């Protein structure tokens, strides 16, 4: 029994360390009050490198209670996939939603489904959604951290972007 408990404690510690830049939205909790002006620093044209290629994100400034974005991954000069989405003002808080598309714009999610990230916390230079964090390093650099699952293992992945 002690061995099982020790193993669980070690796994919990490693999982916490592996996800030190993201936070998890706990069910039965409530997203905090926030507005788009608090995260307007995300707006811009950003480029970086990840997954063996070039990543590009373009975020609009707040308009119509939302900030929309497009993302693409290009490897060997070919688009691998796209994401389209945005941060929306929902009542007194924010919600990040997105959809994935293959290079031919065929969707990954079902027609009416989106991948949703509930707001966990906002600070001056970071916005924490459920396992998805956007961090302002400077006016010309941001980091995105997202927890991805692969073969049942979760891993926090960092995207570093420079303003274009």
TrEMBL record:
Keywords: Signal
InterPro entries reported in the protein's UniProt record: DUF6265 (IPR046232)
Pfam families tied to this protein: DUF6265
Annotated signal sequence range: 1-18
Entry keyword annotation includes Signal: yes
Domain DUF6265: 40-147
Name recorded for this polypeptide: DUF6265 family protein
Organism: Lacinutrix iliipiscaria
């Amino acid at each position: 029994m002690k061995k099982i408990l020790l193993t669980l404690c070690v796994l919990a510690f490693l999982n916490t360390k592996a996800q030190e830049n993201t936070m998890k939205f706990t069910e039965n909790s409530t997203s905090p009050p926030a507005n788009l002006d608090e995260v307007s620093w995300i707006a811009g044209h950003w480029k970086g490198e990840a997954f063996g290629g070039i990543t590009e994100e373009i975020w609009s400034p707040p308009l119509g209670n939302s900030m929309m974005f497009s993302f693409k991954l290009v490897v060997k000069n070919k688009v691998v996939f796209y994401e389209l989405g945005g941060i929306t003002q929902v009542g007194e808080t924010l919600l990040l939603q997105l959809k994935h598309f293959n290079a031919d714009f065929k969707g990954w999610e079902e027609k009416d489904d989106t991948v949703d990230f509930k707001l966990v916390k906002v600070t001056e230079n970071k916005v924490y959604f459920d396992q998805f964090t956007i961090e302002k390093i400077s006016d010309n650099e941001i980091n995105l951290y997202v927890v991805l699952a692969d073969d049942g293992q979760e891993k926090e992945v960092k995207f570093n972007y420079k303003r274009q």
